[in-house]
Specification:
alpha/beta; two-stranded parallel ribbon; 22 helices; 15 strands; 10% strand; elongated
Length: 549
């Protein structure tokens, strides 16, 4: 191959990854590059729904400006086959190449980088640009404010992936100016955009869970985000700087962001609201957030769980709990980087690309009746307990309190209290009859046919439910139901049988309060209950996994 052709040939290892797809498309749009797409898939499969990256690549392959190579970074010979005759290699691995397994992650990330460096030196490649991550300097427990590249690697990494990326980045930088190979690394922060498989899906997982009701991190934390097109642009800027033999660029790492720090929750809410998801209003105290993070990490370590929902919550909580902002002045000055897509434009493009994950419109329609109103039957009882008519509800509340005092607090027997109450009612009615003839309207007791049918239907349904519960318990097949019944009977004995008057009074008083309060704060209370259920379920899984293993 001629030197002129070699100077125009680039290889993108990881070319089918999230960042790799956009880098390939951007190189091809520049018009003067021959691009080799190298990835671990045996053959190239284009996504017909991708109207940007894959469409550009498809046209380039048909004209011969792009080609595909199967590469296994664990096999140096396959790397040599892909990069031989090229002048620059971009190494862009995927951020799910580790799955928190240190051995396999080390083989793919660290050993893979060493094989790529060795292959570049063997094939006389001039430049190697490595796409690292800003998380290599992020400590799991401290904030970072406008960090510069002089900041040392973290001593306690967020996860295995970040630790391995730090090792790989250091390996690339140490290889600079060895056998004519110039290297540098970029550290983008929180990459997002069309095709994202990590940040946005994690946010959507959390939005669909019980955690969606709360601000689960510090609402004052700030983060830097980087739109994927800007990462691709920065990689090309770094290549141009290296080709000019700039000593200050070679062997260096550079932070890359959108240069627009934003509140962590502000970014998330803009994306989720654009997709139609609920906006949380309740902020959990910092001490609760820290406890939740600790519990999630502990259960994650005990179960070695790869559950998508669990890891999504853990990732988002980590992002939201700390400030992580970076100073990109070095990238601006030395590789002449500046964002080509603003944060607002990037968020809008991302929302449009994830429209298939938007919340269904039908789920946004509120029921005509609240959950409590449906539970109470939607009749007069519901109106009283939910304080629809405050005068009627207050009158009923006073009446219930009076009856409770009459039967439970006065030191009389039930028979004596009932007799005296009936006598009082009789005297009152007789006195009223002397003043008005309308008292005879009370002498008729009528029940409509509809009310009778409803009462009988409710009685039958209740009987059938009780029968079903008894049959299920007799079979011994539903341990969850058995456990619930045991707890209920124990609480019934503890609260009702042993202290009936007090329990009855508390129940009557709270029935006029709890239903009303729940209806007013239904979303928040449901969120707390769901959150506690998830933590309880994770605890059960961790305990059972520990003892089964």
């Amino acid at each position: 191959m001629a030197d002129d052709d070699q100077s125009k040939t680039s290889v993108v290892i990881g070319g089918r990854s999230f960042v790799g797809r956009h880098l390939v498309a951007r190189l091809l749009k520049l018009g003067h590059w021959m691009v080799r797409v190298a990835d671990s898939d045996d053959s190239l499969e284009l996504d017909p729904s991708d109207n940007n990256c894959d469409r550009t690549l498809n046209r380039a392959i048909s004209t011969g400006r792009a080609s595909y190579f199967h590469v296994d970074v664990r096999d140096k010979s396959s790397i040599v086959n892909a990069i031989e005759g090229s002048s620059v290699v971009f190494y862009v691995d995927d951020n799910d190449s580790c799955n928190n397994d240190f051995i396999s992650g080390y083989t793919l990330i660290v050993r893979g980088v060493k094989n790529v460096i060795s292959a570049c030196q063997e094939c006389n490649v001039k430049r190697l640009i490595y796409n690292s991550t800003a998380d290599v300097v992020v400590d799991a427990s401290h904030d970072i404010h406008n960090a510069k590249e002089t900041l040392l690697y973290a001593t306690k990494f967020k996860n295995v992936y970040c630790e391995l990326k730090a090792q790989a980045e250091a390996t690339v930088l140490l290889a600079n100016d060895t056998d004519g190979l110039l290297t540098c690394a970029l550290r983008p922060s929180n990459i997002f955009g069309p095709g994202d498989k990590q940040l946005l899906p994690s946010l959507i997982d959390v939005a669909k869970s019980s955690w969606a009701k709360f601000i689960i991190g510090s609402d004052g934390s700030m983060c830097d985000y980087t739109y994927v097109e800007n990462v691709a642009h920065a990689l090309i800027c770094a290549e141009a700087a290296l080709s000019s033999h700039m000593v200050i660029v070679a062997g260096k790492a550079f932070f890359v962001t959108n240069l627009e720090p934003i509140g962590s929750w502000e970014f998330s809410l803009r994306v989720l609201e654009g997709l139609g998801y609920y906006r949380p209003m309740v902020k959990l105290p910092d001490v609760v957030v820290k406890l939740i993070v600790y519990l999630i990490k502990w259960m994650h370590s005990k179960t070695n769980s790869r559950n998508i929902s669990n890891s999504s919550v853990r990732n988002i909580v980590q992002i939201m709990s700390h400030t992580t902002t970076y100073d990109c002045s070095a990238a601006q000055q030395h590789i002449e980087y500046s964002p080509v897509v603003s944060l607002d434009e990037g968020i809008q493009a991302t929302i449009e690309s994830f429209s298939h994950l938007a919340k269904e419109p039908s789920s946004l329609i509120l029921d005509e009746q609240s959950k409590m109103e449906q539970l109470l039957g939607g009749g007069e009882v519901a109106e009283i307990l939910l304080w629809r008519d405050e005068r009627k509800s207050f009158s009923c509340f006073c009446g219930v309190v009076s009856l409770f005092y009459w039967f439970c607090q006065c030191e009389r027997t039930v028979v004596s209290s009932t007799t005296q109450l009936l006598l009082l009612i009789l005297v009152s009615l007789y006195g009223y009859s002397l003043l008005s003839t309308e008292v005879f309207s009370f002498s008729k007791f009528e029940v409509s046919e509809t009310v009778m049918k409803s009462s009988v239907t409710n009685t039958v349904n209740m009987w059938n439910r009780v029968s079903g519960v008894i049959r299920s318990l007799a079979r011994g097949s539903d341990w969850s139901l058995f456990f619930k019944l045991v707890v209920f009977l124990y609480l019934f004995k503890l609260l009702i049988v042993n202290s009936f008057p007090i329990s009855l009074g508390i129940a009557l008083a709270f029935s006029f309060i709890l239903f009303f309060v729940y209806e007013q704060y239904e979303e928040e209370i449901d969120g707390i209950i769901g959150l506690l259920n998830e933590l309880a379920r994770w605890s059960v899984v961790s305990v059972t996994t520990k003892y089964l293993n």
